[in-house]
């Protein structure tokens, strides 16, 4: 399992969270974050990495349900931000965490390989994590 830079996304081939109702990371998820931190060290020209969490399940009805879903998405994004910043020493200035909930980009707009794979223990896992390179140094090549 490796993380790699492709276009403006960091791709990885393993689920990060243990399941749809927990903020706990899998062992594989921790290794993915180790790889991401390594890539951030190897590529100082990458100035800003956005951690995005999307909900691909059924769209909730009502404003309160959508707000709660957005809060849950933001909580997941914040966990990844904290893991990269505090435990892996990636500068906080180089990270951004955004929980889109059901309001973000639809999975149909992206290839499946750009998203977090479904958990083998929970095939209906509705959360998707994307790591997006948002800002590059002006002197750096942009893919």
Question: What would your notes on this structure say?
Answer:
The protein has one domain (4-136): 60s Ribosomal Protein L30, Chain: A (2-Layer Sandwich). 29% of the residues lie in helices and 23% in strands. Mean pLDDT is 78; it is low at 106-123. The protein is built from two helices and five strands, in the order E-E-H-E-H-E-E.
Relevant terms:
single chain; 143 residues; alpha+beta; 60s Ribosomal Protein L30, Chain: A; 5 strands; 29% helix
SSE topology:
Layout (H helix, E strand, L loop, with lengths): L3 E3 L2 E3 L15 H16 L3 E10 L7 H25 L7 E7 L25 E10 L7
In short:
The chain has 143 residues and is an alpha+beta fold.
- What best-fitting shape do the alpha-carbon axes yield? globular
Beta-strand residue percentage: 15-25%
Order of H and E elements: EEHEHEE
Secondary structure category: alpha+beta
Helix content percent band: 25-40%
Architecture per CATH nomenclature, i.e. the level-2 architecture? 2-Layer Sandwich
Instruction: From the alpha carbons, calculate the radius of gyration and give it in angstroms.
Output: 15 Å
The overall average pLDDT, rounded, is 78
What count of domains describes the coordinates? 1
CATH class: Alpha Beta
How many individual β-strands?
5
Task: Enumerate the strands of the largest sheet in spatial order, edge to edge or round the barrel.
Answer: 1-2-5-3-4
| CATH T-level fold name | 60s Ribosomal Protein L30, Chain: A
Question: Distance between the terminal alpha carbons, to the nearest Å?
Answer: 23 Å
**What kind of sheet is the major sheet?**
5 strands, mixed
Number of helices: 2
Low-pLDDT sequence parts = 106-123
**Corresponding CATH superfamily:** OmpA-like domain
